[in-house]
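Slide 14.
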Amino acid sequence: MATTTFDRDTGRQDHSGGAVVGTAAAGIFMVLVGLLHVFQGLVALFNDEFYVYGEEYIFTFDMTGWGLTHLIAGVVLAVTGFALIQGALWAHTLAVVLAGLSIVVSFLWMPFYPLWNIVVIAFDAFVIWAVTTRRRELTRS
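Slide 15: predicted structure.
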């Protein structure tokens, strides 16, 4: 169980090692997911023929649109991941929201590059788990 102590004289709050390590790991994974999205976006923008998909896929979008979506999402995810590593409180909530949106985008992008997207979805699930469980430990005491 995590322990959080608060020193009334200094106003300093010390968090457990588990909460700090879990949040830092979530930030690192979030930066990694952001970089994976950026790579997917750049490939989609610069080489339209790289991704192959069947004509029967229900969600048909332009590769340029997908590339820009992945590029923008990747940059926002990476910046939020860096803020999470730095300990910004706003980044905890935004990390959960963005990781959820990343899961949706990766699911829609699944026919284009399935293995890559399974890895991204797994990393996003870890980020959501790590941020929400560690946040509870920080607020419990």
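Speaker note: Strands lie at 5-7, 12-14.
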